[in-house]
Automatic annotation (TrEMBL):
Residues 34-102 form the Acyl-CoA dehydrogenase/oxidase N-terminal domain. Keywords: Oxidoreductase. PANTHER family: ACYL-COA DEHYDROGENASE (PTHR43884), ACYL-COA DEHYDROGENASE YDBM-RELATED (PTHR43884:SF25). It comes from Streptomyces amakusaensis. InterPro entries: Acyl-CoA_DH_C, Acyl-CoA_Oxase/DH_mid-dom_sf, AcylCo_DH-like_C, AcylCoA_DH/ox_N, AcylCoA_DH/ox_N_sf, AcylCoA_DH/oxidase_NM_dom_sf. This is Acyl-CoA dehydrogenase family protein. It comes from the Bacteria. Pfam families: Acyl-CoA_dh_2, Acyl-CoA_dh_N. Residues 248-373 form the Acyl-CoA dehydrogenase C-terminal domain. Coiled coil: none annotated.
């Protein structure tokens, strides 16, 4: 589903990081009022997509050479965080759709400009190589079934991770890896999209399954994460597309905490009649949640800033710096889940009524996003091995 570009509320041409963040914060208030509708429809409504597009979020990583704002990783994460204070599903789709600028840096410039003629082009798709790409003259014939296509109901381009085969046998990569992993780029209408997204939370992300059989994809419409073509900080490390992810749980937790703080201003304990603002169990919980959220947020932004400084100096991030960004992501997810869970319990019975309180949706959303692979405990296992002298895999989206 493609939206007419004229449907955007504001012109996005020439906007900078400060303006994108300002628009994201303004959009959050509107999104908060649309959250119930987004959740019920299990995808972003057209006007919500238009609102996101109007903020400039989809162009955040587009190169300055094209007239794009080319925000830093920290700036992009702050924008996603702001959107998440309004609605987590919208923020998740914004985070996914904003990868367009990163993907464009792995393609020949002329091809990228053809595929991304509009800086506000939104992408979606599952990147891990679960599909099969058989090499043929001029490109590939791809087949497969992919999952978790967040934003697939409104994207302009759809990606699909594949293993490459030649004459039925795995084709080695140029760097010596026995299996070549390539990401294919096509149109969403080239795939069959399956209405599979019936979930606990993040319902509005529309993260449906999709499949195709024997689809031809030209060679130039595919890329490898190991071979960026554009010089630039956004493409200088394999984890580029993961850097903004912590913004979603951090923004959701911020919204939940602000909601309960506001609630506490007028609420009293039913049994004792004591105002919440004077109850130790309330004040202590609020203070601890603020402390935990601030710590998780600081870890995320400090690790992103350190990595960016290294990249800006023309150096590759050290193993410890790459581990730090991965651990900060993990911490953001799980700290946010713990915070929302504590606040849900604090609010009590009122929190279970989805029509009366946003707490129910926030708990469902943060629980679902914590099932993402980058929030999985295997990240801790891998990080510990690396900290004790192991090596970082060359081809992985976790690091």
């Amino acid at each position: 589903m493609k939206l007419p570009r004229g449907s955007a509320v504001h012109d996005t041409a020439g906007i900078d990081a400060a303006e994108i963040l300002s628009r994201a914060r303004a959009a959050a208030g509107i999104l908060r009022g649309r959250s119930e509708d987004i959740d019920r429809k299990r995808q972003l409504p057209d006007d919500v997509v238009a609102l996101l597009r109007s903020t400039g979020v989809f162009r955040m990583a587009m190169p300055a050479a094209w007239g794009g704002p080319e925000l830093t990783s920290a700036q992009q994460t702050e924008v996603i965080e702001a959107i998440a204070t309004g609605d987590a599903s919208a923020a998740w789709c914004a985070m996914i759709g904003a990868d367009s600028g990163i993907f464009s840096g792995y393609l020949e410039d002329s091809v990228a400009r053809e595929l991304f003629p509009d800086l506000d082009t939104a992408t979606a798709g599952f990147l891990n190589p679960v599909g099969r790409a058989e090499r043929v003259p001029g490109g590939y014939r791809i087949s497969g079934d992919w999952v978790f296509g967040s934003g697939i109901t409104h994207c302009d381009l759809l990606t699909a991770g594949c293993r490459v085969y030649r004459d039925g046998e795995p084709e080695p990569d140029a760097d010596g890896d026995p299996v070549q992993w390539r990401v294919m780029i096509a149109r969403p209408e080239d795939f069959e999209i399956h209405d599979s997204w019936y979930t606990t939370g993040l319902a509005g992300s529309g993260s449906r399954d999709y499949s195709t059989s024997d689809l031809f994809v030209p060679e130039e419409h595919s890329f490898s994460f190991s071979a960026p073509r554009r010089e630039g900080l956004l493409h200088a490390a394999p984890d580029a597309i993961l850097r903004t992810m912590p913004g979603v749980p951090l923004g959701l937790a911020r919204a939940a905490l602000d909601h309960v703080r506001e609630l506490a201003e007028s609420r009293t304990d039913r049994t004792s009649g004591t105002p919440w603002a004077r109850l130790e169990r309330v004040t202590r919980t609020i203070a601890e949640c603020e402390m935990d959220l601030s710590a998780a947020r600081s870890y995320v932004f400090a690790s992103l800033d350190e990595q960016w400084k290294r990249l800006a100096a023309g150096q590759r991030p050290t193993a410890d710096e790459r581990i730090a960004t991965a651990l900060a992501r993990y911490k953001a997810f799980h700290s946010s889940h713990a915070i929302v869970s504590r606040l849900f319990a604090l609010v009590g019975g009122a929190a279970i009524y989805s029509k009366r309180s946003p707490m129910d949706r926030w708990l469902r959303d943060v629980t679902t996003m914590c099932r993402h692979v980058d929030a999985g405990d295997q990240n801790l296992t891998s990080a510990g091995e690396l900290l004790l002298g192991g090596s970082i895999p060359q081809k992985t989206l976790l690091w």
